């Protein structure tokens, strides 16, 4: 059997992002969300416009789904599939890092934990599968929010959980821009005092971010002596996210 066609995967990802943005999105917005060059995105949009799937607004700067195509706002990835693809990789990350590992996805403005690996020691720990986390206050959430082109998943009210929680929308926007540039997100006592975390986005078909994987632990274990997130842990987390995403993409 022939392999999948990358251009079609990317076009499908563009359509899903447009479906979640009723006011439309620009070429730059789509490029940032999918990690694609503007020229590539423009070529996809031009083709989709020619076949009648998308239309431009009066200014010509934004695109949206046409009425003929309908809306595709619902997520395409079943949480059980994300969990099943992540299990082995997340377990390996916990074993190598010695820290708690979680896989999460955004649902109605909250991060839902779909998989949780205990820290590999003898301490008492509670299972977090099914629990929710505030996306603006945790690395898992920021890793996904950064690639939400429409901004629809971003919480309207940024509640404070510690003195370090980001509660200013402008500051959160700056943080998410930095996440896109780095390819990973960090947290430092933003949800729980004395805990830090690292997370990276999981990309499915077409580069669409479908969730994130990350680890959390005591600051002295996650950060170096200058309170910077340890580069070796960042590398581990990013490699794990890519491995999970690769499994999701290759089995389609």
TrEMBL record:
It comes from the Bacteria. Keywords: DNA-binding, Transcription, Transcription regulation. Residues 5-67 form the HTH iclR-type domain. Coiled coil: none annotated. Residues 68-250 form the IclR-ED domain. PANTHER family: HELIX-TURN-HELIX TRANSCRIPTIONAL REGULATOR, ICLR FAMILY, HTH-TYPE TRANSCRIPTIONAL REPRESSOR ALLR. This is IclR family transcriptional regulator. It comes from Kribbella ginsengisoli.
């Amino acid at each position: 059997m022939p392999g999948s066609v990358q251009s079609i995967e990317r076009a499908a990802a563009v359509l899903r992002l447009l479906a979640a943005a009723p006011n439309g999105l620009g070429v730059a917005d789509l490029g940032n969300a999918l990690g694609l060059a503007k020229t590539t995105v423009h070529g996809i949009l031009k083709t989709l416009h020619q076949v009648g799937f998308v239309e431009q607004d009066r200014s010509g700067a934004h695109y949206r789904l046409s009425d003929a195509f309908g809306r595709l706002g619902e997520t395409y990835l079943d949480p059980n599939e994300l969990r099943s693809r992540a299990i082995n990789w997340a377990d390996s990350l916990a074993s190598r890092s010695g820290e708690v590992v979680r896989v999460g996805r955004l649902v109605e403005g909250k991060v839902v934990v779909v998989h949780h690996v205990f820290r590999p020691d003898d301490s008492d720990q509670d299972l977090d599968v099914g629990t929710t986390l505030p996306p603006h206050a945790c690395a898992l959430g920021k890793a996904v929010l950064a690639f939400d082109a429409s901004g629809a998943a971003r919480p309207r009210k940024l509640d404070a959980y510690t003195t370090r929680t980001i509660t200013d929308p402008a500051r959160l926007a700056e943080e998410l821009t930095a996440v896109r540039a780095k390819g990973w997100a960090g947290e430092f006592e933003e949800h729980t005092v004395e805990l830090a975390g690292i997370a990276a986005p999981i990309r499915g078909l077409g580069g669409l971010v479908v969730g994130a994987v990350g680890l959390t632990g005591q600051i002295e274990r996650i950060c170096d002596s200058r309170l910077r997130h340890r580069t070796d842990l960042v590398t581990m987390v990013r490699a794990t996210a890519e491995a999970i995403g690769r499994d999701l993409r290759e089995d389609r």
